[in-house]
Every structure is written in structure tokens, then in C-alpha cells.
Amino acid sequence: MEQQIIYEQDVANAVCVLIAKESRAMPDDVEVELGYDDETGFSAEAELNGKMHYLDTTRLVEALRLWIDQYLELDPMAAGIQLKLDDEEGIIAIVR
Q1: pLDDT score of 79
Q2: Beta-bridge mates of residue 86
Q3: Residue that wins the pLDDT comparison between 28 and 75
Q4: Distance between the two ends of the chain, CA-based, in angstroms?
Q5: What is the pLDDT of residues 14-67, one digit of tens each?
Q6: What pLDDT score does 49 carry?
Q7: DSSP the chain
């Protein structure tokens, strides 16, 4: 598999898809804020109908695997996913 980059907007979209799927809602109803902290790593806060959902790095990777399966049509379990904080692009995922 050649390397692909999932840019920040699609990383946020992946979180929307995961939270919507788990809550039986529409992805457009989910608001997401991505974050990075030197001590805790990558994270996301998602709000749906006034309820906050916190995703750590592991859950972000889970969201990206769902995204890879549904939108990139690749084997999500075979994909190596590396989250990266890019100075210009923000939070991106490198998929190998």
C-alpha cells in the first residue's frame, strides 16, 4: 500500500462519523475539536446534542480505521496509521 495522507478536516470528519455511528445520529450533527498535548498526545472533543465525547489517541485511530474502511475502501486493519502534528497542515494521519 502506498502512503496516503488524511488531512486535518478529514481527521475531524472521521471523528464525526464514529460518534454519529455510535449514537445513531448524523455526522453533520457532531462538532469536533482536535487537540495535541506533549504529555497526553492526540485527542478530540466531540459534541453531539449537548453531550461531550472525549477521544484519546487510541479512539482517534479507531475513528480513522472506520474512515479508511468507508471512504478510502482499504483494509482498515492492514493500514498502519501514524498521527502527526504538522506545522502547516495541523493534525494529519499518515496511512501506510
Answers
A1: 87
A2: 90
A3: 28
A4: 6
A5: 999 999 999 999 999 999 999 999 999 999 999 999 999 999 999 999 999 999
A6: 95
A7: ---EEE-HHHHHHHHHHHHHHHHTS-GGG-EEEEEEETTTEEEEEEEETTEEEEE-HHHHHHHHHHHIIIII-S-TTT--EEEEEETTTEEEEEE-
How many whole angstroms separate alpha carbon 41 and alpha carbon 4? 21
d(CA 70, CA 10): 12
- At residue 1, does pLDDT exceed 80? no
Partners of residue 42 on adjacent β-strands: 36
CA 20 to CA 41: how far, in whole Å? Answer: 24
Q: Assess whether pLDDT exceeds 90 at residue 68.
A: yes
For 17, the grid coordinates are 462519523
- Dig out the grid coordinates for 27 from the structure: 455526522
Residues in the chain: 96
C-alpha cell at 45: 472533543
**Spatial separation of the C-alpha atoms in residues 65 and 53, rounded to whole Å:** 18
